TrEMBL record, chain A:
Record's keyword terms, sorted: Nucleus, Ribosome biogenesis
Name this protein carries in UniProt: Ribosome biogenesis regulatory protein
Pfam families in the cross-refs: RRS1
Organism: Diversispora eburnea
Keyword Nucleotide-binding listed: no
GO cellular component, one term: nucleus
InterPro entries: Ribosom_reg
Coiled-coil ranges (or none): none
GO biological processes: ribosome biogenesis
Function noted in UniProt: Involved in ribosomal large subunit assembly.
Superkingdom per UniProt: Eukaryota
Cellular localisation: Nucleus
Similarity remark: Belongs to the RRS1 family.
TrEMBL record, chain B:
Protein known as: Ribosome production factor 2 homolog
One family name in Pfam for this protein: Brix
Region span, Disordered: 281-300
Subcellular localization, as worded in the UniProt entry: Nucleus, Nucleolus
Compositional bias of kind Basic and acidic residues: 283-300
A single BP term in Gene Ontology: maturation of LSU-rRNA from tricistronic rRNA transcript (SSU-rRNA, 5.8S rRNA, LSU-rRNA)
Source species taxonomy: Eukaryota, Fungi, Fungi incertae sedis, Mucoromycota, Glomeromycotina
Length: 221, 300
């Protein structure tokens, strides 16, 4: 119990010090009763969990909203499972890679012996079958590159060669398209040939591009 | 409040650090001067700031801040410095040697307590050893008022908030260097003292404690207050679900105080059960079995 009178008097500081000393002694005694771990750096005391509720600085963070894919996966019950790179080979009792070097998806291409039913090259046969399978699978997935090519083509298929088209979001950037010029002084033979080719296309007797009848009517207009 | 959109990676990183976290960082305190101050207040701000180092910012210029009238500038400083504790010092004829302790939550003022300094002795006047920077203090709150009176409770909580530092699971005994002693008896008076702890050997297992005043030393008088709204305070003291201890299943304490738990054991393999050894139960070889059957046939 604190004596109020002593706090008012001149010896208040002394009294406070003594009173606090007693309190601190009790506190230290309490601390020493909990488990002590001595190490090289010193003696550490395990503290109990804090009791006093002290307000936070910022509110508890809200969980981030799910992305469209996450929502869909949740609704459908789709879980992402990572495929193991190694699989167990029952025949040999070893773990082998799923594909690649020493992989298991080679369909016995490494076999040193294949029985021959009718005099054909069984090794070549297997290779051929695999190649066909791969190309068939690839045909199912239109290549990204090809898709970009068609996009590019369609872009330049307007009256103004796509000059005034709006660029859409996520549209592939045109890459590697450069203007190419023939050298000023070069192969005259080749130049002559190309020019003749163009002329032939226009007015050549065989499969000419020019519609003569239409052209004449145009001029007469 | 001002919303900043990061323009480069560095600002994005800084803003990310300031986002609300489940386990929070140590709150930063800003020590700031009001419109007019005197030497007592200035020294008090410096000393209180030095006790809070390194989680403290001291503003050296005067600011036109009146926390009880206008909170906007506090909100601005809070947002700008990512600090949520304030100690504002001022001095006027009406309110001499004034200190205002302010806490913020979510960029808004949570609660405030105004105290006047009646008597003060700065740290530099005590020619003793000082505590090192960033060590956790021991707290001693003397007086029943800290349990009963709302204003005292808030002041206690506020001081704990400012000086408790990081919450830790264990502490080195060497790190217990100083005690902050706060005593309240009556008349709105609060005695704030800081002592250095000296541990000496004693007959008991625990060392004997000797104290030496390190400073600062203040006699405070409680003045105006602004308490937190119950709703907001409840929200501020909410413990995130992840930090709450997990509920233990199937474990209870019975009337006798014993812990009773239910354990699930797998099915017992009865075939390997050791029974009493009787001759008849002995497992014989297959030949024996055939012989006995043949004997039986012959008998028939």
């Amino acid at each position: 119990m604190i004596h109020k009178d002593l706090l008012i008097s001149n010896t208040a500081d002394e009294y406070l010090k003594e009173y606090t000393r007693d309190g601190t002694q009790l506190l230290i005694n309490q601390i020493f009763q909990s488990s002590l771990n001595s190490s090289e750096s010193g003696i550490a005391v395990t503290l109990p969990d804090p009791i006093t509720a002290i307000p936070r600085e910022k509110p508890i963070p809200k969980p981030k909203p799910l992305t469209r894919w996450e929502k869909f996966a949740k609704a459908k019950g789709i879980h992402h499972r990572k495929k193991d790179k190694l699989i167990f080979d029952k025949n040999t009792g070893e773990w082998v890679p799923r594909w690649g070097y020493k992989g298991t998806n080679h369909d016995g291409a490494d076999d040193w012996l294949i029985p021959v039913p009718d005099n054909t090259d069984q090794f070549a046969n297997r290779r051929e079958v695999k190649k066909q399978r791969i190309s068939k699978n690839e045909a199912r997935h239109p290549l990204k590159e090809e898709l970009q090519k068609t996009i590019l083509m369609s872009k330049t298929s307007t009256a103004s060669n796509g000059k005034f088209d709006k660029v859409l979001e996520g549209e592939p950037k045109i890459k590697g398209v450069k203007r190419k010029f023939e050298p000023n002084v070069g192969d005259t033979k080749k130049e002559k040939e190309t020019n003749l080719n163009i002329l032939n296309k226009l007015i050549g007797k065989n499969d000419s591009v020019l519609n003569v009848r239409k052209a004449i009517t145009k001029i007469n207009q | 409040m001002l919303k900043i959109t990061p323009k480069n990676a560095r600002t994005r990183r800084i803003l990310q650090k300031r986002e609300p976290k489940i386990e929070e960082n140590v709150k930063t305190a800003i020590f700031i001067r009001g419109n007019k101050t005197n030497q007592i207040v200035n020294e008090a701000l410096t000393d209180l700031c030095s006790l809070k180092k390194p989680y403290s910012i001291k503003f050296s210029k005067k600011n036109n801040i009146r926390p009880f009238e206008d909170e906007t500038s506090l909100e601005f400083f809070c947002q700008k410095n990512d600090a949520s504790l304030f100690v504002i010092g001022s001095h006027s004829k009406k309110k001499p040697n004034n200190l205002v302790f302010v806490r913020m939550f979510d960029g808004q003022v949570l609660d405030m307590i105004e105290v006047g300094i009646e008597k003060s002795i700065p740290i530099k006047d005590f020619k003793t050893r000082k505590c090192s920077i960033d060590v956790k203090p021991l707290f001693i709150f003397n007086g029943e008022l800290f349990e009963s009176s709302q204003i005292h409770k808030t002041f206690k909580n506020m001081l704990l908030d400012v000086y408790r530092g990081k919450t830790v699971k264990s502490i080195d005994l060497k790190g217990l260097e100083h005690v902050i002693s706060v005593t309240a008896v009556s008349n709105n008076k609060i005695y704030f003292r800081v002592y250095i702890v000296q541990m000496t050997k004693s007959d008991q297992k625990t060392p004997r404690i000797e104290l030496e005043e390190m400073g600062p030393s203040y006699n405070f008088v409680l003045k105006r207050t602004k308490f937190a709204k119950e709703e907001v305070y409840k929200q501020a003291t909410k413990v995130p679900r992840t930090l709450k201890p997990k509920k233990e299943k199937n474990v209870n304490v019975n009337e006798m105080g014993d812990v009773v738990g239910r354990i699930h054991v797998g099915k017992q393999d009865l075939s390997k059960l050791q029974t009493r050894k009787i001759k008849g139960l002995k497992r014989g070889t297959d030949d024996d079995f055939e012989k006995t059957t043949q004997d039986k046939k012959q008998k028939i």
